Amino acid sequence: MSLLYLLAMGLKNSLLELGRKPAKLVMYLIAIAFLVAILFLSSSRGAAPKSLDITWLQGAFFLLVLGFAVFIVANGLSRGSAIFAMNDANLLFVSPVDSRPILLYGLARMARTAFFAGFFLLFQAPWLSRAFALGGGAVFILLGAFIIALILLFTLSLIIYSVTNGRPGRRRAVKIIGLALILPLVLHTLARFAGMGPEAGNIQTVLLEVIRSPFCLWTPIAGWTSAGAVALLTGNTGGGLIFLGLNLLALAAALAYIALSHPDYYEDVLVAAETAFALRRSLAEGQINPEMTSSARTRVAGTGLSGAGARTFLFKHLRESFRANRLGLWGLSSVLTVAGAALLALFLRRDGLSLILQLLMWMQIFLIGTGRGLKELYMHYIYLIPAPSFAKIVWSNLETVGKVFGESLFIFGVVAALTGGHPLLAAAAVVVYTLFSLLLLGVNCLWLRLVGVDLSAGVLLLLYVVAVMLIMAPGIALALFASAFLLGDLLAAPWDLFVGLAVLAAWELAAALVCFALARGVLHNCDMPVPKLRES
Amino acid sequence: MIQAENVSKRYGRLLANDGVNISVAAGETAVLLGPNGAGKSTLIKSICGLLRFSGRITIGGHENRTPEAKRLLGYVPEFPVLYPMLTVAEHLEFIARAYRLTAWAERAEELLHRFELSDKKQKLGKELSKGMQQKVSVCCALLPEPKAVVFDEPLVGLDPHGIRELKTVMLNLRQSGCALLVSTHMIESMEENWDTTYIMTKGRVARACRRSDLRAGESLEEIYFTITEAPS
Question: Measured between alpha carbons, how far is A345 from A353 in angstroms, rounded to an integer?
Fold first, then answer.
């Protein structure tokens, strides 16, 4: 009863909080309205002509679940899953309540976490409708399958931690088992590609065959989830229930194992709860760098900094980046971006370059705030150092621009090679993409200067996106006008696109300089932002 | 040296500072006391230029946002915020380079030795305990030899040796003519070493008390409770 009370009160207080925070309420209402609109439009549009094989959806869903599986299992090997919050650990674990119902309470919390992790799936309805002629209900099937898979993975993570904690031999064994589960699919994929002919389109055919193969379908959790969801979407209810049933069976077995053989799991979940709590406390104290709470070992080879005055920020950021990552400005996200762009280029072929540029520019709007330059605003040093505000802002953000430039060389080089695009077009895309990062940094500073707060609040982020769109709109219009009307008759493809990109780049540079100029003195006119904490 | 005149700061509907006036002269230690939520940290952050405010704040006669004022000011925040991927030595080098300090290496060594950090120079920020981080934070604030230092709960998280050293450092700073503004809840830790105390409640300075105002046998703690527990 007490656990039900906790869950109910948590829900009630979350709802009451919305009344006290109108901005949050408005954000939720906008998200719900947006969701209802796209689901309604997707359903009312009727069956669209199918343009893609649904096997591609199965493959994408497989990769999504596999990515979560790798992440959660790796967590299981290091610190378990954060099934419980620190207040649960402090209050529930010492209470005279049986540990089994407390585990069920933890599962209810996990279901909520899984729902929010998969929430973005609900927004995929228009794309699913266009590409696979699926109705609005398809996203709910995908979300349901995703939630079951995540709860199973969290539970397995708890078991893995409790079984391997302090036992290096068992940890190695779990890693070997994990690799063994995916190895047949990897070997099968490699074998199929090795035997592939040179004809165009073969890559897609081989990929489709791999996704349809039993090696993929029967890969635990990721294979079962994707195969089950797609079977249900295509009307194969029996197949769907069998595959998703396997996940449910595995979950039941995992829970039975914990309940019967290991009811004293408190110690096993405590490390994860403490780690999550330390991260939250660190954030509350102004430490926004995730590296602070990372347990990964860092090798200190070269030491020392360069520069003087505001320039020191750039050299400090370079030192930090190269120490955090052997590839320096390159990280996992860079590798994934290049790989993702290359994969897209395989499908998009001739139109690839401009479409990938558009997609990456959209992503950049949301990712630009993850650079060290903007994180610097959450620490006091940049405000106290006796140098001009403008110089400090510019030098502390240059590393981000360099990173974007380095990444874009690879991205558009690879895309041009795969799509047969002209090298000059790739070079123009690099310039447009890099200058867009400069513009976004300028908009960020101007935003901080005018609004005086950071962008972590949802409604503000929405307004920020609208502001970026408005600033870019004249540039895009000019670029389209120049490429289509002024020069369209004079220049053949791809030179019309080249002219459009050049005009867009010039607009971005001009707009960025205006933003930076208007944002002068930003550090004197804003409150040092305080990181926002998510509810646990 | 530190002058705050009619400083007000509002967070939405909450008035965190309401027309606050304080001043700390060179060679003087001023203590800022008050219950949680009284507005002490807000005032300190406003003085250090981390928050917008209405009113006027000067450091050594310069408006607090100017580079001249920043050159005179040191700040030890309530929670030490270090760069996880920089070593202890690099934190000091970063400050030295950013402030364009000359001949700073010897002073850095001296500070590190004083706070028992000499053997931790190559440790990364993320590898330090909270207490060690606090010591590095103090070293960073003192390296540019500021003429005014603002401490926000400086003793929290320090071990007994660190507390003793920091108190000695504060005493030395005061004797050398530095202005110190210290916000703390640990009243007894400042009993011997203060010149003026500002007791804040509800965003205002409820009482400014000079050491010479104390009656014989009267302690800072007694004054604090008289003010903060008085019916409003």
Answer: 7
Q: Tell me whether B13 touches chain A (CB under 8 Å).
A: no
Which residues are registered as beta bridge partners of B9? B17
> Around B212, how many Cα atoms within 13 Å sit in the side-chain half-sphere?
0
Nearest residue to A393 via CA among A376, A406, A414, A405: A376
What would the pLDDT profile of A384-400 be if each residue is shown by its tens digit? 999 888 888 889 888 88
CB B228 within 8 A of CB B221: no
User: What does the CA dihedral A461, A466, A469, A471 come to, rounded to 10 degrees?
Assistant: -100
Q: List the single residue in B with minimal CA-CA distance to A288.
A: B81
d(CA A29, CA A22): 10
pTM summary value? 0.73
Contact call for residues A81 and A269 (beta carbons, < 8 A): yes
Residue-level pLDDT at A535: 47
Quick check: A379 and A286 in contact, CB under 8 A?
Answer: yes
Nearest to B151 by CA among B72, B89, B52, B73: B73
Distance of alpha carbon B5 from alpha carbon B19, whole angstroms: 7
* CATH number attached to the domain at B2-83+146-228: 3.40.50.300
Instruction: For A491-523, write each residue's pLDDT tens digit.
Output: 666 677 788 889 999 999 999 989 888 887 778
Query: How far is the C-alpha of A464 from the C-alpha of A469, rounded, in Å?
Result: 9
Three-point CA angle A68, A69, A72, nearest 5°: 80
Terminal Cα distance for chain B, rounded: 33
Answer yes or no: do B85 and A298 touch at CB < 8 A. yes
Given a contact cutoff of 8 angstroms between Cβ atoms, the answer to whether B180 and B173 are in contact is: yes
d(CA B78, CA B171): 20
Nearest CA in chain B to A278: B130
Please enumerate, as own/partner, the contacts of A38-47 that have beta carbons within 8 Å and a separation of 24 or more.
A38/A123, A38/A125, A38/A126, A39/A122, A39/A125, A39/A136, A39/A139, A40/A136, A41/A126, A42/A125, A42/A126, A42/A128, A42/A129, A42/A135, A42/A136, A43/A135, A43/A136, A43/A137, A45/A129, A47/A133, A47/A135
> DSSP assignment, residue A535?
P
What residue ranges in B52-113 does DSSP mark as E strands? 54-59, 62-63, 73-76
For B147, the token pair is 């003429």
Cβ–Cβ below 8 Å for B84 and A294: yes
Cα–Cα distance, B147 to B173 (Å, whole number)? 9
- Beta-bridged to residue B208, according to DSSP, are B198
Going across the sheet that includes B62-63, the strands are B14-24, B2-11, B54-59, B62-63
Closest residue in B to A324 (Cα) is: B85
Helix and strand counts by DSSP (H, E) for chain A:
22, 0
Residues of chain B contacting residue A310, judged by C-beta atoms under 8 Å apart: 98
Residue spans of the domains in chain B: they are 2-83+146-228
Round to whole Å and give the CA distance between B1 and B47: 12
Q: How far apart are CA A342 and CA B65, in angstroms?
A: 48
Q: Does A55 touch chain B (CB under 8 A)?
A: no
Give me the pLDDT at residue A116, please.
Answer: 78
Residues in chain A: 536
**How far apart are the C-alpha atoms of A443 and A368, rounded to whole Å?**
11
- Using CB atoms, pick whichever of B73, B77, B100 lies closest to residue A308: B100
Contact A121, A225 (CB under 8 A): no
What are the tens digits of pLDDT across the range A145-204?
A: 999 999 899 888 888 887 887 788 888 898 899 899 999 999 998 888 887 765 555 777
